């Protein structure tokens, strides 16, 4: 099977390139999606709209903090479980880690909910 190579010196490639460059932009670019307003609404002015977007960013940051806390507790629980399986720690240690970790995640979510009310 033979492969076709296109060099810029070839007339066919030059014509193809010129046709592609002459296509109108509406044929080559897709329409961008419209931006959604913030959850509190667009606001009456630019500053209020920016504040509303910052509020949504703060809520997203809070969700990321809660996610990291949950993943940290889960990771530590798995490492303690591995230590239990290797007989370095007891089941009581695993229960304590899971209990305190669950309480910690609940407290973090509660604090973040209170912080969202303040914003």
From TrEMBL:
The keyword ATP-binding does not apply. The keyword Signal applies. Keywords: Membrane, Signal, Transmembrane, Transmembrane helix. Pfam families: DUF2976. The chain crosses the membrane at residues 54-82, 94-113. It comes from the Bacteria. Residues 1-30 form the signal peptide. This is Integrating conjugative element membrane protein, PFL_4702 family. It comes from Geopseudomonas sagittaria.
């Amino acid at each position: 099977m033979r492969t076709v190579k296109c060099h810029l010196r070839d007339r066919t490639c030059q014509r193809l390139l010129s046709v592609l460059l002459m296509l109108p932009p509406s044929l080559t670019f897709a329409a961008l999606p419209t931006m959604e307003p913030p959850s509190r609404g667009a606001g009456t002015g630019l500053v209020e709209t920016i504040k509303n977007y910052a509020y949504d960013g703060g809520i997203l940051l809070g969700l990321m903090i809660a996610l990291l806390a949950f993943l940290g507790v889960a990771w530590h629980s798995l490492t303690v479980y591995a230590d239990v399986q290797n007989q370095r720690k007891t089941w009581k240690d695993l229960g304590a880690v899971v209990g305190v970790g669950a309480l910690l995640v609940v407290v973090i979510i509660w604090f973040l909910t209170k912080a969202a009310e303040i914003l």
